[in-house]
Amino acid sequence: MTLVEINKIDAGVVAAKSVTIAIVGDVHDQWSGADTQALESLGVDLALFVGDFGNESVSIVQQIAAVSVPKAVILGNHDAWYTASKVNRKKCPYDQTKEDRVQQQLDALGDCHVGFGKLEVPDCKLTVVGARPYSWGGTRWRHGQFYQERCGVSSFAESTAKICDSIDAAKQNTLILLGHNGPAGLGDQMHHICGRDWKRSGGDYGDPDFADAIAHAHHSNRQVPLVVFGHMHHELKHDKTRLRDRVVVDHHDTVYVNGAQVPRVLKTASTWQCSFTLVTLAAGKVQTVRLVWVNATATLVSEEYLY
């Protein structure tokens, strides 16, 4: 049985009319024609890419821009790795006086890049609103010159206001919020969904501006069934006995999903499989969240229900 057939059965169980969304976690240069074929074979209504395609890897982004599935994309910190960071700029492998690879990625993606913007998806009766792109995470405002020049924001408050403008301008009442890093306020332990795991003391490494924008959406009586992000990988650096929490539900029944399954592609000399996180929405609510592994022929290798 193919994954498309399984999706149809699952959708028929939860609701007569539902929406299936594929979340593509941090790519980190693991994308090829086989990934495109696998995604396009899933039969999903929408794909959400959380960024970190590579260190300003224009070729990977161009491949993803060509995917035929309706999609919303946000660029991550690695997608501005050499441009935003003064330290990394010294290691830049290309001539930045002749190339602007951040802009090249934006040009390739066009309207499907939703960082500080939105994508209307009327067929699914929802709007995807993008949080602050290029986020490194945490409560310290970083790379101020980059954000001022590229995005016109100089603080968390200005960033929040810009995200809220997109929320207020959304044509659909049902919103999905898409970030590279997740929002603050979801826990401060290493294993929490946005917890800092590279220090044993842990800490909440979510984005405060993203959290404030989500609160604004709730206060505006918008329906927010799903918040999607990545950045914080599922394997923990200092605790190998468990994995990161990948799904959290708040008191608004908003489901937060961290899709950063890294690596998202596993291959040997004889096999290849890639992962997607599949979310089913029905009646404006999340019904299921599944981590699936699919081979190049769109055959389900394994699945795990996360919610």
From TrEMBL:
Domain of life: Bacteria
Pfam (any one): Metallophos
Entries under Gene3D superfamilies matching the protein: 3.60.21.10
GO molecular function: hydrolase activity
Start and end residues of each Calcineurin-like phosphoesterase domain: 20-234
SUPFAM superfamilies: Metallo-dependent phosphatases
Coiled coil stretches, renumbered: none
Annotated PANTHER family: CALCINEURIN-LIKE METALLO-PHOSPHOESTERASE SUPERFAMILY PROTEIN
This protein's name: TIGR04168 family protein
Organism: Leptothoe spongobia TAU-MAC 1115
